Every structure is written in structure tokens, then in C-alpha cells.
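Standup notes, protein team

Yesterday: finished cleaning the candidate division CSSED10-310 bacterium set.
Today: ABC transporter permease subunit structure.
Blockers: none.

Input for ABC transporter permease subunit:
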Amino acid sequence: MSDEQQLTNTNQDPVALEPKKKKEISLSILKKRWLKFKKLKRGYYSFLLLVFLYIISFFFPLLINNRALIVRYEGKFYFPAFKGYYPGKIFKADVPGEANYSILQRQWQEKNSDNWVLLPLYDHGPYEDINVEGNKIYEAPSSRHWFGTDDVGRDVFARLLYGFNISVSFGIGLTLISYLIGVSLGAAMGYFGGKFDLIFQRFIEIWSTLPLLFVVIIISSIIRPTFSILIVILAMIYWTSMTYFMRAEFYREKTKDYVAAAIAMGQSNSTIIFKHILPNSLVPIITYFPFNVIGGISSLVALDFLGFGLPPPTPSWGQMVSVGLKSISKWWMVLSPLGALFLTLLTIVFIGEAVREAFDPKVFSRLR
């Protein structure tokens, strides 16, 4: 290669690389962190799997249910999965109470009737017990009941999947409410400081000494805990941890030049807090979110196991473990909920590790 060609290539290299450099520089820090998160395959695929299963879980009443999706009887259409209860006498079935759609389907098929039933993919619901024909107490896993039945003949597989939706929803709901309180109060403490900060520090120290289990027991003895009430009770304690993180972040951020510039421009405190400081203080909020969800799920399972959680017959992993331990020989009653709990928490841990690595300030910082 001649000296002239080498000089030409050398002169072209900076020009060729310039668009790439501009493209890299133009990426926001959140975009860089998202791309880093996607490169962490274990956490990224765990995130996609959990989101997919959680979205699908809202359609379980259409996929896993003992109520038929559609019933065509004597030219009329019925929608039990949407409308609810239909007595057996409507379809001239010799079954007291609600119609057994599996039996109706079998009978009409044997008679080659024009009537037909469209059942869900898995035709057992989380609440049907021994009163439903064919259900038995502590039936071992089989082709009819994939994960067996419990102490009152309810299908374990159906309750397991419905319990997944309840557990994850509880963990996310508890974390969001705790964050709403903790982030707001921590931001105010860090921004205003002084006596306001000192008073609320003492209040949090006293409040955090409340024994959570005793509080739940006392409240449960007065009122029947529901999903919403239980979240509010636990959120009364869980908000304190995030308060300290946000307080420290706001103390650090408010000393920087951009905050001084905003104050000099006459911007209000709310604008400075929510528009300027809070976007720069999101790292602890995001990185601790998966681990707080784990704490919420674990708390619900523990309370249900002790009998102070959601009222029966709500599908609950903790309640299923409690029933299984009463008769340890029924291995499916212990293995199924504990296996589901282990896999769910492991998936969230993988997500949390990936988020924490992607948001590591040593990797990407707003000051770089």
C-alpha cells in the first residue's frame, strides 16, 4: 500500500467513526442502563418470563376454571365463565346446585345431542371442593388433577396458579404503597432538613419498633383481613426502609450546582423536588424494587401459613403449605406451593441482580 493510500485511510477513519461516536453520546443514561440490563441474559429473560406469566394470570378465569366458557342448550347460549352461577335445573341436569359442565358435556356427547359445552383448557377451578362429583380428598396427582387435591378436594394446580397472581399482585401493591409513603417523606426530610428532618427521624425510630406480627394479630382479631386491608397494614411498617435511602439521596443532590441554579431562578420547592432532584435519585427506588416485592410475597406467605393472612378459601401458597404439613405424607401438598414460591422468588432475585448491576453508578453516571 502506498503512502498516499495510507494517508487517505487515516484521514477517513475519524470521519467514518464520527456518526458512531455521536450516536453513543446521544444515548440517555436510562437508555444505556436498559441496554446493559438486556445484555444480562439471566435477569432479562427472567423479567420477560415473569411479566408474561403475570399478564396471563389475569386470564386464568378463562383458561383454568370449572365453569364453561360457552354452553349451547336448546338453541340458547349461556356464558357461565362471564355470567357466573347457573343452576343445574336450567339444563335439566340431575345435579343439585350449580351445573357440572364436565358432566353435561359428557352426557350430551354420549347422546349425540345438538347441545354442546366449550370448557376451559383446564376444567377445574380453585374453589370447587368435594361437593363436586368426582373430587376426592387428598387425591394424588393424576391426569384428572395434575397436582392432586387438598384436604377438602380442591384442585391444587388451579389454586397454585391463582395463588401466583395473588402473591405477585400483593408484593407489587405493597411495594408501591410503601414507596409512595417512604419516597415522599424521605424526599421532604432530605430537602428541607433541620427540625423537620430531626422530628421525623425520631418518629421513624419509634414507629419502626412496632412488632409487625402482633399488629396483624390484633387487627385480624377485630376485623376480617382482606387483600386491601392486609396491604395497608403491612405498608404501615414497610415504608420506613425506603425513607432513609431517599433522605440520603436528597441530602446529596441538593448540594449540587443544578439545584442552586434552580433556586436562583426562583423555581418552587415542588418543581425542584419532582422535576430536578427526584429524577436524579431514582437509582435506589428502581434497584430495591424487586427485592421489596420479594419481601411482600414472603410476608403474605408467612401470614397465610400462620393463619393471619387472607381469609379462606382464597388461593394462597402459605395456606397450602400449612395444610400439607398437617399431613406430611401428602407430598404434593408441600412440594407444589414451595416449588412455586422458590421459582417465583428465584426469578425475581435474578431480575433484581440484573437491575442492580445495570444501575451501578460505577458503570453509568450522570456526571460522565
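Follow-up from PR in the comments: Strands lie at 70-73, 76-78, 116-118.
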